[in-house]
């Protein structure tokens, strides 16, 4: 699979010109090496200094730039979530994505539709619970002889 084909470089490459570039430009660690994201598996070439800063920020875990943005966004949405928790949640989501969508897109579409239907049902149940218990009324245009909800939840106009 293409996202797992990248391999570690055996010989580090130098940034800059063929004469050595500027070795002090990034704090002395001018040798680039390949490192793999622990969430999505994508490989990037980075300097050891940069790798150290990223691992320090994400508590010892190397994450690529895209995953770092996703983890930061998740923390913004859920402030109580720790960095390690956000990285772990994102890694689980990436693993689920790579094991379903990439392997069988049709199955992924079916499971996504199931999830949408499940969330919609949960939303309906919450709105019924919030509006009060269902009451028995005369047959409505959308409910038939079943227990009808409040008239405001009926999609069809009252006749």
From TrEMBL:
Region feature (Disordered): 1-29, 120-141
Matching Pfam families: DUF1677
Name recorded for this polypeptide: DUF1677 family protein
PANTHER family: OS01G0745000 PROTEIN (PTHR33108)
InterPro entries: DUF1677_pln (IPR012876)
Source domain of life: Eukaryota
Bias-annotated ranges (Gly residues): 18-29
